[in-house]
Amino acid sequence: MNVRRQLTPAEPLMRRIESASELDTPGKALGKKVRGAITPGPFKDAVSGTWLGHAVHPMLTDVVIGSFLGATLLDVFGGDRRGRASQRLIVVGILAYPPTALTGINDWADTEIAYEDVRRTGLVHAATNALALTLYGASLGARRRGAHGAGAALGALGAATLMAGGYLGGHLTLNQGVGPDRTVFDPGPPDWTPAADGSQLPEGRPTRVVVGDTPVLLLREGELVFAIHDRCSHRGCSLSDGSVEGDEIVCACHGSRFDRRTGALKRGPATEAQPAFQVRRRDDMIEVRLLSPD
Fold it and tell me: pLDDT value at position 294?
């Protein structure tokens, strides 16, 4: 018997977008330019949200969406007689758009290089939001010329376009995983668990082992062994492929730095610390258990 899963209403469209290989050429070129322009350092940390503890982009989208939709809702339910409140809200949305787009394209560029579906969906998301901005800009122009009916109609089209862009943004985050901490669902074993034969650990070189279902980076320095989660919280790269610089593990993918002892975040673009582990030896066996954040 053939059993087919019932698709959600938007799923066929999302599958078409995710399989649109013609978007790869412009997407790869744009991603490369963004990564070349926003390099690791204080500015990238700022737009990534390293200082905040999670990505900045979702917070800024609330300002853009709230302002634009607020203007349209005033059109529907009635605002001041001259429509100035709607105009001011549109201006707020337009001013908030550039930093929102900047933080979003930064997050996208760090991910698209490895994931085709993210590359394609992100391009359509950006284009849809740009169209919404254009419609609201035209709406503002019409309102200032006194064409309030045309301004309201353009705003309504902008609102519909904005909702489509918001759906795509939600798909990027909630379905394709752009932004969430990549360690949140498997922080590691809370009880002492065998991890590796200590006699086989190389000196001074990060080594990846799997403890239960959790990838763990082990680093031996003399008699000391350090252990942190091996999957980078930023975009999921293996930290054991990176390097050791002083007391820090440096991710090979995007340059995030974590304390080898506590997993503390030292430099972005990551926004979350790595889960760290207590380590003990039992004969030659290295055992680990999750270290409390406190």
Answer: 63
